[in-house]
Amino acid sequence: MTEPTRYQERPIELPVYPAPPPPAPVEGCTLCTLLDVFRAAHNDPESPVYDPSRAIDCNVEIRNHPHTPPRMTLPTGTPEPTGPTTTDGEA
């Protein structure tokens, strides 16, 4: 019978792979475009609807194009766009 190890073994070093790029919405698909708006809002830490998990859900649904069957249900309200806005007369 062998004696059990009495010391901590060296940790295993696993490779770190970069995250895949987010999917591009399919041109002309209204649902993909709407999901892209939701994804942007959920990815923005300054947004009141910031939720990285929901942003990933949007990525999954965009990859699921043509959305049959849909993997998620969309909320009834559309999030406000984030970022700089312009008013009439400003460039």
What does this structure look like?
- The protein is mostly helical and 91 residues long.
- Helices cover 29% and strands 0% of the residues.
- The protein has helices at residues 30-43, 52-63.
- It is elongated, with a radius of gyration of 21 Å.
- It is built from 2 helices and no strands.
- α1 runs antiparallel to α2 (52-63).
- The longest helix has 14 residues, at 30-43.
What distinguishing features does this structure have?
91 residues, mainly alpha, 29% helix
What is this entry, summarized?
The protein is mainly alpha-helical and 91 residues long. The chain is 29% helix and 0% strand. It contains two helices and no strands.
Instruction: Report the sheet with the most strands, covering strand number, pairing sense and barrel closure.
Output: none
Order of helices and strands: HH
Low-confidence stretches: 84-91
Count of extended strands: 0
Chart the SSEs and their pairings:
Elements: H1 30-43, H2 52-63
Helix pairs in contact: 1-2
